[in-house]
Amino acid sequence: EGVGPQEYVLIKLKVLQPGHGQSRHAKMEAILAKYDQPVYFVPATLRPETMYGQTNCFVLPDGEYGAYMIDATNEIFIMSARSARGLSCQSYQGNEYFTKEFGKILCLETFTGSELLGLPLKAPMAKYDKIYTLPLLTISMGKGTGVVTSVPSDAPDDFVSLKALQDKPDFRAKYGITDDMVMPYEVVPIITIEGYGDASAVFMCEKLKITSFNDKAKLQQAKDETYLKGFNMGIMKVGSHSGKKVSDAKPIIKQELILAGQACLYFE
Ligand code: A2H
């Protein structure tokens, strides 16, 4: 944290046709039927090089989200109203704004996070063809887009939440998450850190015996250590930049995602 705005990379996770016939998805199904534009969840990340390890995408069940028309690119983004306002005032790849009219917000629909749970998505670079939106109770709606993509190999929060959903049927049931949305999703090793193995978040959570979000101090220690070591000492072990240092691969992968139309920058 320093002077000036924080740069985030928004990753575009495409909404696929929901197959479970759930009434909570009625609004999303209507949006998909009505518009030709692709609909994306747009989690904000500081670690674009970890996108190979995505296993799911998180929303806050009580959070408020909207579907926003991004007319500069003809896409629909699912995000918080706050971040939609921010984007509408930001330039898209140097010239136009995300919404052609500066500051104009085009909200097509609003949702609670609960109405967005259990949706199938296609995430760029992920090993799994289809991943699901799941609940994460520690999301802050005042940061990024209110959507977080999950990389349990390298982010302790993501690992703790995914593991809790896999281990606790009651937790799944409370949020209408079925077994097929969590059970097939094993941690994907993507970055090797000397002394931490190839899934540093799992290593630290096991070493410190972290079992839930109640272990706040230990979770903070795990986060501090994995983030610092991952960036400074991590070596990519997957993808076209396998073998490179994380600090070297990160800017390259970020640029590749942006050029492929799979990501964009967001400042706040
Ligand atoms: B990061 P900072 Cl692998 N609420 O992405 C809570 N957490 C949020 C959020 C929100 N509204 N918006 C983004 N985030 C998460 C990947 C990742 C991230 C890895 C390792 C570390 C890491 C996969 N999740 O973050 O407070 C997102 O998780 C280290 C802090 O703005 C985002 O990057 O600095 C990061 O927190 C942004 O946190």
From TrEMBL:
Q: Which family does it belong to?
A: Belongs to the class-I aminoacyl-tRNA synthetase family.
This chain's protein is named leucine--tRNA ligase
Portion of the full sequence shown: 267 to 534 of 1086
